[in-house]
Specification:
By secondary structure, this protein is of the alpha/beta class. The chain contains 2 helices and 22 strands.
């Protein structure tokens, strides 16, 4: 009973949050209900950015969705976004239905243009991100510009992705571990 009451309050607060955003960004924010967003979640639309949310999108605590400049963020229905995830679009990010995004995931469709190191407005290099249907993105993964993930694929926890992954695949980024004894480290630093 407590859970139903909690979900009911969360659904009401989500609807209130969505209607408030809609009032300020009428044509730039489209949503469908039911969806549940925790109170600490954040939706930011700047300049010509647009966000579309399908039915049954669930976002836990401290999730941030950003559409800035000309960014389009399109999230289909039945998508689960775990705590601490940040998704920022300067161009285009599309997340397919049934996708699960683990905690602490970062998704950015842009990089800073380091060739332009001048004061003032930052300049970005962008490329769309496409995440297919029924994809599982593991905890702490980082998806960068130009990433394309096929349907029914899995991204291993902690992976850094900036490539195309075919459908029905598992992407695991193996990292080598190195242990350096402190005595050796001190000797190297004293040279």
């Amino acid at each position: 009973m407590k859970r139903l009451l909690s979900n009911g309050i969360c659904a009401f607060l989500t609807l209130f949050k969505f209607l408030t955003i809609k009032a300020f960004h009428f044509r730039k924010f489209v949503f469908h209900i039911p969806s549940l967003f925790q109170k600490s979640s954040k939706i930011v639309i700047r300049e010509n950015g647009k966000i579309f949310l399908g039915k049954k999108v669930i976002a836990l605590s401290n999730v941030e969705l950003w559409a800035t400049e000309k960014g389009n963020l399109f999230i289909e229905g039945s998508v689960f976004i775990n705590s601490g995830t940040k998704i920022v679009s300067q161009e285009s990010i599309h997340i397919g239905s049934g996708t699960t995004i683990g905690p602490g995931v970062y998704i950015y469709d842009h990089d800073h243009n380091y060739g332009k190191i001048m004061p003032g407005e930052p300049e970005y290099i962008t490329s769309p991100i496409i995440i297919g249907k029924n994809v599982w993105v593991g905890a702490g993964a980082i998806l960068l510009k130009g990433t394309s993930i096929g349907n029914n694929s899995i991204i291993g926890a902690g992976s850094l992705v900036n490539c195309s992954i075919p459908p029905d695949s598992i992407f695991i980024q193996k990292k080598e571990s190195t242990i350096i004894p402190i005595s050796v480290h001190k000797r190297v630093n004293s040279l």
